[in-house]
Amino acid sequence: MRCEEFERNLNEVLDRRENPETDDSLLSHAVKCSGCDELLHGHMALLQSFSASTRPVVPSGFASQIVESMAPSTKPKSTVTEKLLTVAVIAATVLLVVSLIQNNSDEPAVAKKQVKKTRKVEPVQPKKRDTINQSHVAFVGRASVSEALISPIVFHIWKNRSEYNQWFSKTLNSMRKRKGSPKKPRADLFRRDHLYT
Amino acid sequence: MSDDLRELVRQSIDGDQSAMQAIVARYEGQVFGLCYRMLGHRQDAEDAAQETFVRVLKSLHRWDAARDFEPWLLAIAGNRCRTALSTRQRKPAPQTLVTEVPETHGENGDADCLAEEIHLALQNVKPQYRQAFILFQEQELSYQEIADAMSCPIGTIKTWVHRVRKELVQRLRRREVIQDKSYAM
User: How far apart are CA B102 and CA B99, in angstroms?
Assistant: First the structure.
């Protein structure tokens, strides 16, 4: 037997989880070749070390700790209706703001036109209240379908404002907690006491 | 796979915590052992084992019941360990308290010394090779199971295991840990 063949056969025996010392062909070569003898001896030592070594001890309560960490949270999940309502509120707010901005940007032009017109006919300056009334009429006159649609939503929010208040403050609080608080410390099992020894 | 394990898995999917605990208790030794050998550090091994079980319990519904549970579980553990090792490369590693083998040992002095040397030597082996070797040598999985778990051809796994064996023996010989005992005449 050649040395390469010895090594290949040795690996095959070890792959079958058999003891190489019981293989006559391997032993007969090992007694004649010191290199292969050392190799066989080394593999035997390795094998014995693995069979003798004990597995590292798992910390007590490991399983229960994991299952506890997997327990479902008591926090109720938001329903689909709530989510839809939130989206509707946001959309309504955005539409309102947009329409108000548009209205405000148009207002001076409308007022100027009105002033110019009134100056030609009547030199007296219009009262502030009148200007507001005129711009309001202009705003209502240009009220789009979307604005008409959002009004019931806004009415609904106004009616249930106390509930929305609570929900909003809760959401804010949870957001603050998520942002500000550090990561939840691990249980005793995962403390790194060794770092302080 | 045994029927009781199948039943435990089914109950765990339904949210039975005692079934989950039973699964963890059954495999914690194997998973922790693999993580410890892979990472060479007890605290890191605990973290990796915990992450493994959390991941496994959350994805039990995705496990193919036609296949063995153990290789699937150990494959996840191996992946967690390799992720931890790559994270460790980016961050400074925790200080290993015992870096050198102590001169004096207890009653099993030589055996302890050898085990420690092997443990240290394993840390210098490529993570993939190490995983294959531990799964074969310590966890006693078959080559086919390891190949399935690591998604590699069986021949590649064999080559890796042989390579690690050789490297370990060479290191033990270099360090003169192996006692002089000869088969030669």
Answer: 9
CA distance B139 to chain A (A): 10
Domain ranges of chain A: 3-52, 80-181
Q: How far is B42 from chain A (nearest CA, A)?
A: 9
Q: Are residues B65 and B111 in the same domain?
A: no
Contacts of A42 in chain B (CB under 8 A): 169-170, 172-173, 178
> How far apart are the C-alpha atoms of A45 and A41, rounded to whole Å?
6
Q: What is the pTM of this model?
A: 0.60
CATH no. for residue B145? 1.10.10.10
Residue B165 is assigned to a structural domain of this protein: yes
Are B89 and B109 within one domain? no
The CA distance from A62 to A15, in Å, is 33
**One-letter identity of residue A90:** I
| B67 or B165: which leads in pLDDT | B165
Tell me which residue in B29, B53, B54 faces A55 most closely, judged by beta carbons. Answer: B29
Nearest chain B Cα distance for residue A77, angstroms = 17
Closest by Cα among A16, A50, A18 to B139: A50
Return the CATH number at B56: 1.10.1740.10
Tell me which residue in B29, B43, B161 faces A58 most closely, judged by beta carbons. B29
Task: List the domain range (segments joined by +) for residue B77.
Answer: 1-97
- Residue B184 forms part of a structural domain: no
Closest CA to B80 of B38, B19, B41, B120: B38
- Are B184 and A27 in contact by the 8 Å Cβ rule? The answer is no
DSSP state string for B73-115: HHHHHHHHHHHHHHHHHHSPPPPPS--S--S---TTHHHHHHH
pLDDT in tens, A144-185: 656 666 677 777 777 777 787 778 888 887 877 666 555 544
